[in-house]
Amino acid sequence: MTTDPSTARDLGEVLHPIARRLLAGRTISAGKLGVLGYLSVHGRATATTLAAIQTVSPQAIATAVRELEALGLVVRTPDSEDRRRVWIELTETGRARLTEERAVGLDWLERAIAERLDAEERAHLDNALPALRKLIEGGPIE
Question: How much is the pTM?
Answer without folding.
Answer: 0.74
